[in-house]
Amino acid sequence: MYRQLVVRLAALVATVTLPLVGVAAPTAVGAENPYERGPAPTTSSVLGNGSYSVGSTSVSSLLVTGFDGGTIYYPSTTSDGTFGGVVLAPGFTATSSAYAGLARRVASHGFVVFAIDTTTTLDQPDSRGRQILAALDYLTQRSSARSRVDASRLAVSGHSMGGGGTLAAANSRSSLKAAVALQPWHTTKSWPGVRVPTMIIGAQTDTIAPNSSHSIPFYNSLTGAPERAYGELRSEGHLAANTNPDWQGRLMVTWLKRYVDADLRYSPFLCPAPSSTSLSDYRSSCPD
After folding, report:
1. Active site residue: 123, 126, 206, 263, which one?
2. I need a surface site. Which of 24, 34, 76, 284 has the fewest CB within 10 A?
3. What are the pLDDT digits (tens) for 151-182?
4. 117 in catalytic set
């Protein structure tokens, strides 16, 4: 009788405790995210440079195929593991040096940023899109910075025709974690095939790629993207990517942090929609 009672009690304990095996105790948001980099964001930190000191290395056109070299910007530390990678493509007639300020800003928040030169400064958006992807492959497979990059967490960005190339690249490679198109220009206005979280950053006074015929139609067409957003910089023109205004940096960094790093600490900066006198328009699917 006693033996039967012990067996029954043991069975009862097993039925209560077995469902709990393997269930982790509650943790703070992001505490188990291996991709978090840097301190928790604040309203001031996302407007300026990040906490990482930044190094850089030039990439000669003689070392690459499919594009024309450029400069890689990266967090100087090696103690935080690998970082997400971003390729940044220039606009029509521009070169990578025009985007050094923006590239350094993004890198200082914990990304390896490859500002590239195109094969010619006159290359059209679809060509720039192919060059962006070639540069991503070089960055992760052959570059001197490849050991700093997590090849599973990559993003694309670009300005003007480079922004159009960004949409083309995202349309071609759905494995990308994020895309950020800066004052984008493209003759193709509809991008329902993009399956990448995509942000469009327009400029209120842009007369080269007017928002009404470029950024806004691009944003509206991104019906296949899991998340999308459109931010419009008040009183800024087409060269905002070159002048590197703080709110452009904030929008770009928070988007990359949320989707390349899966860092939920940045979600409140995207949803509910940010409001500022520095923005003349903002629309989004309100990321989770």
Report:
1. 206
2. 24
3. 999 999 999 999 999 999 999 999 999 999 99
4. no
